[in-house]
Amino acid sequence: MKFAPLTVLHISTEPGWQGGEQQAFYLAQGLRQRGHRSVIVARKDGAFAKRMHQQYFQVHTFRRRGRGPDALWTIRRLVRALRPDILHAHDGHALSAAGIATLGLSRPLCIASRRVVFPIRSPAKYCHLADGVIAISGAVMNACRTAGIPEGMLRLVHSGVDPERAGGGNRERGRRALNLSEEDVLLLTIASLTACKGHAHLLDALPKVFRQFPKARLALVGQGELRQKLHDHAVRIGIADRVQFLGYRNDIPDLLCAADLFVMPSVQEGLCTSLLDAMLAGVPVVTTSAGGIVDIVGSDSSDGPYGYVVTPEKSSQLCSAITNALTDPCMKKLADRAREHALRYFTHHQMIEGTLSAYHEWLADSARRSA
Q1: What CATH number does residue 23 fall under?
Q2: What per-residue confidence (pLDDT) applies to 303?
Q3: Which end of the chain is more exposed for a tag (fewer CB within 10 A), N or C?
């Protein structure tokens, strides 16, 4: 069925660039490629506004976190002028701003994305300000249900990644950037340095791994408030000389190709697109079963798992999984299967089509209720 072009007003209040902003970027680009119009409202000092402007989107900005009168007036003015079909709030503060800014107006359909598994502190906000909630994994869906959001408001649309970008790196260039020889064994983790990502449990697993694999080393990509604490911890347990804290990197595809094993030690996780990047790059993975990760790697009861999967917060299990993966002659076959699985279910094109399908379903429901 062919639908009329949509105008979507995307609202983001996040200052940095993480998984949620990347998904919003993919969505806006994909909508534009499919003939729809995307207009961006984002904080003036944030990475999202800057990058969307660089991609020639119409961008309107506000100061701070979207709570001030300038943000509310900007949204209200745009709703009046553009008459968008959809307001898409890409974070919780964005949903609050959209709801307050449109009070008294004939409000367009308001959709909220929920990307984290943390308990929802204000369920009423989602129930009363949103017409629909897109959850990025089964675990996030369950968190929404637990908060009391009605089932009819929920749609599952997995986040997706660009397979060409993920698999487009160069191994030699990536290893050269880290001063690695071909004999070195690179363990790679890509995640913000926050408690929910479980880096400390991974560090605790490594002394034994490093004794068994003298050429192994770990590279941590990402920034966060725990950087110094994690570095100090690596010093205390005697592995600091074999752990690199790389911070933000713009050569992720090269680093993925350079890796011999991708390790994701998350304690809590909405879905984990960096794990998808690794799978699409053909890198074997060791991960926990935290949150939405199970949607990606499968389980023994489905057609997975597509990597070594351990219990969150269990350093001993991480140690065993890493050593087993590095010595498993079938890991290449497992990585190939994981790549095919990610290509089948977790690309950015599938995320865009799933979101569009949810838009049209909710728009149809709204039209029926108004008739």
Answers
A1: 3.40.50.2000
A2: 66
A3: N
